[in-house]
Amino acid sequence: MLKELEAIHADALSAITEIADTEGLEAFRISYLGRKGRLTLAAAGMKDIAKEDKPAAGKALNEVRDAISAAISEKGNLLQSEADAREADNVDITLPGRPMPRGSRHPISQILDQAVATLRRMGFALASGPEIETEWHCFDALNTPPDHPARNESDTFYFEDGRLLRTHTSTVQIRTMETTPPPVRVIAPGAAFRRDEIDATHLSNFNQLEGLYVDEEVSLADLKGTLEYLLRSIFGEKTPVRFRPHFFPFTEPSFEIDIMLEAQGKKSKWIEIAGCGMVDPDVFNAVSKSRADSAYCPEKVSGFAFGLGLERLAMILWGIADIRLLIENDVRFLRQFP
Ligand code: DAH
Question: What CATH topology corresponds to 107-334?
Answer without folding.
Answer: BirA Bifunctional Protein; domain 2 (3.30.930)
